[in-house]
Amino acid sequence: MTTLDLVQAAVNSGTKTIEEAIVEAIAEARETCDINGSNSAGCAVAWDIVEELQAEKSHKKQATQHKTSLDNYCTMHPEAVECLIYDV
């Protein structure tokens, strides 16, 4: 399991927020780059993890912004007639 997988698992389990994970990943990336050099593979991977976490935060934010009132209603009342989906 990669570091990114571990961080995402912690975020998904609710033990830490995505913002906390990003702050920790940035600190780890800076430390990795200081130790291994800014041109090292480890440094690049560490910053890739930061980028992936920031992208995940952005995707989650977009997903919550585009809900219509019907979407919100169906989230609260999935059994309502208006919310049923039929395969034809």
Protein traits:
88 residues; elongated; mainly alpha; single chain; 0% strand
Summary of the model, kept short:
With 88 residues, the chain is an all-alpha fold. The protein contains four helices and no strands.
Report what the structure shows.
The structure is a single chain. This protein has 88 residues and is mainly alpha-helical. The chain contains four helices and no strands. The chain has helices at residues 3-13, 18-36, 41-65, 69-76. The longest helix has 25 residues, at 41-65. It starts with a helix and ends in a 12-residue tail after the last helix.
Explain the layout of strands and helices.
Layout: H1 3-13, H2 18-36, H3 41-65, H4 69-76
Mean pLDDT equals 85
Q: What is the approximate shape?
A: elongated
Low-confidence stretches: none
Number of strands: 0
Number of helices: 4
Please identify the structural class as seen in this structure: mainly alpha
Q: What is the strand content? A: under 5%
- What's the gyration radius in Å? 19 Å
Secondary-structure element order, N to C = HHHH
Largest sheet: none
Give the terminus-to-terminus CA distance. 41 Å
Question: Helix coverage percent of residues?
Answer: over 70%
